[in-house]
Amino acid sequence: MALIVQKYGGTSVGDAERIRAVARHVAETRARGNEVAVVVSAMGQFTDELIALADEVTPTRPAREMDMLLTAGERISMALVSMALGALDVGSASFTGSQAGIITDTTHMSAKILEMRPDRIREALALGLVPVVAGFQGVSTERDITTLGRGGSDVTAVALAHALGADVCEIYTDVTGVFSADPRVVPRARRLERVSFDEMLEMAATGGRVLMLRSVEFARRHGVPLHVRSSFTWEQGTWIVEEEPSMEEAIVSAITDDTSEAKITVGGVPDRPGVAATLFRALADAGINVDMIVQNVSAHNVTDISFTVAKTDLEPALAACTKVAEGIGATEVSSDDGIGRVSLVGAGMKSSPGVTALMFETLSAKGINIEMISTSSIRISCVVRAEKVADAVRSLHSAFGLDVP
Ligand code: ADP
Ligand code: ASP
Ligand code: MG
């Protein structure tokens, strides 16, 4: 008998019929002799709707109250899924993140899990019930309700799977697995049977939103087997696995796209030690994650520093830069939210020359200008105009032979 954690995303519980379908699948999984714990997201686009509603009331988004508001979405789904299970004579009980013992730090809207104490979930399983846990939420060490950041139900599922010692964590979503590119952007993308944790981390970090980055980090650190699959077709999906030395690595496994970032340029700064340190310390102290960084070659000892941040961090990032601009001798701080990023990910890249050349040639043949470049040993990313991103992804997908025939 296996213990399976099944996480259902927003589309998977999008309406009453979807909720009944989920309950039937849970019941079937149990009938095959498994124990099941369920994690659910808010129905459909409900989290976005709640955010829009809050913005109508006030645009200030007070973090503690936003968390209280947003966690309502997952509460609705957990109760309905539990009721649907009851209607199939499957004993079940729903639990908020707090009741499930998910203890977080006090950072509202992007809290980190500090400890898992899922005693009530274990008790429910021992009684033969299916616990249905609200994803995306926890309770802080200050006893306030917190959320784990957008897409955070994936983290709930992985953390719960680890805490319960589950045999597998199944992520049910609206696609049949992890694809060689977002199937919404590249209709000829192919489903990958297996993806290594390293590749999945790079994909999640560069726009492959099928799994939240932090859930992949957590799963790798704790060796939680992850299976991404469809709640519409229920077929076998994609397994995220440790790379096996015997695996022949694809040079390029996937192309990702991301238009969620903006670029900031701090111009006219003197090219001397300490300038970048001061600037990025100010950003770090404001709690801002910086992604790609480029410093221009200096002319007459003056240079420009450009970097990207999440669009949602643009305002506080600009404020942090403006605050230190004078002190570091910068003459201007500007921003550009019309950028997008396209990335190639592949574990075989590290031993294959020519990948970068083919990427640049492909973009150039399409007349797409590259504005910034960054690399890791298994990824190359280029910043281009946002409106060129879809074309870039499709061209690269063909150029690297990934299109389904
Ligand atoms: P859920 O609500 O189930 O968590 P998400 O919207 O967060 O679903 O993630 C699923 C979506 O991720 C898919 O609908 C797909 O458009 C998108 N996606 C982006 N990149 C990929 C990829 N490489 N493979 C599969 N899906 C991807
Ligand atoms: N409902 C939350 C969101 O939309 C969490 C999740 O779906 O994982 O971000
Ligand atoms: Mg998601």
Describe, in plain words, how this protein is organized in 3D.
- 35% of the residues lie in helices and 26% in strands.
- The protein is α/β, with parallel strands linked by helices.
- Among the domains are: 3-174, Carbamate kinase (3-Layer(aba) Sandwich), CATH 3.40.1160.10; 261-336, ACT domain (Alpha-Beta Plaits), CATH 3.30.70.260.
- Helix 8 packs antiparallel against helix 9.
- The chain is globular and about 75 Å long.
- Bound molecules: adenosine-5'-diphosphate, aspartic acid and magnesium ion.
Give the fraction of residues assigned to helices: 25-40%
Coarse morphology: globular
Please give the alpha-carbon distance between the first and last residues. 40 Å
Q: In terms of structural class, how would the helical and strand content be classed?
A: alpha/beta
Going by CATH, the architecture of the domain at 3-174 would be 3-Layer(aba) Sandwich
